[in-house]
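[recover] target loaded
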């Protein structure tokens, strides 16, 4: 699969250049490409993502002093724990570090575009394609175990999703194995979520119906998953 993806990527990226026929400036071309891959092109974008993670954990008061530590992972970790986010500290910090590293790469390449001789353009175009592939490839998460369960797939999706972010998932499955089990897990979650919603209604008959569904429900792991801070759709 990765071979096919890489082959298609090469076909897509080969004609790309920092000096297109449109006459657009190299810096603008590069920035647009980075944005197209959802890479941070400013410090503020790194901070915005950190704010979203914090607000996803219902942190509102004292949020800016924490956000100000985005470039200092150790201090950020300490502040997150002090704010009562021990369960999410490692994930939050890892995503911030990843964003910071990507932003640093963006800055370093952008600095090379200040004054470029015509003889250097081909070399920079090749470097651009290498960087774009690195960024794109970092988004591909391959589960090597062909016998992976639906549970394990969903857990991995949660691990890859920044805490507090809203993640839209498109599922494609084959007729058996992990793909089918993945769909079954979401069907189980849907049953559980609807039953829990019924429990919150003022109508005692509807609430009782929801309770009966939960009592008969055997896949209890997904009752827990439905309360996850990472919201999936």
């Amino acid at each position: 699969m990765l071979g096919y993806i890489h082959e298609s990527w090469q076909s897509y990226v080969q004609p790309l250049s920092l000096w297109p026929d449109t006459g657009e400036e190299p810096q603008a071309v590069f920035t647009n490409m980075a944005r197209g891959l959802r890479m941070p092109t400013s410090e503020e974008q790194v901070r915005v993502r950190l704010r979203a993670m914090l607000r996803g954990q219902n942190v509102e008061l004292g949020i800016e002093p924490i956000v100000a530590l985005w470039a200092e992972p150790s201090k950020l970790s300490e502040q997150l724990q002090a704010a009562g986010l021990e369960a999410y500290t490692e994930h939050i910090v890892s995503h911030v570090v990843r964003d910071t590293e990507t932003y640093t790469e963006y800055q370093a390449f952008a600095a090379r575009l200040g004054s470029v001789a015509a003889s250097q353009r081909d070399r920079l175009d090749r470097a651009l394609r290498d960087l774009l592939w690195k960024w794109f490839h970092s988004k591909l998460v391959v589960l090597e175990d062909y016998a992976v369960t639906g549970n394990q797939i969903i857990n991995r999706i949660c691990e890859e999703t920044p805490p507090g972010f809203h993640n839209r998932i498109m599922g494609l499955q084959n007729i058996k194995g992990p793909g089918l089990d993945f769909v079954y897990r979401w069907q189980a979650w849907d049953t559980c979520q609807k039953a829990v919603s019924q429990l919150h209604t003022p109508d005692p008959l509807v609430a009782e119906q929801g309770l009966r569904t939960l009592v008969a429900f055997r896949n209890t792991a997904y009752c827990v998953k439905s309360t996850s801070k990472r919201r999936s759709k």
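[recover] notes: The first strand starts at residue 166 and ends at 167.
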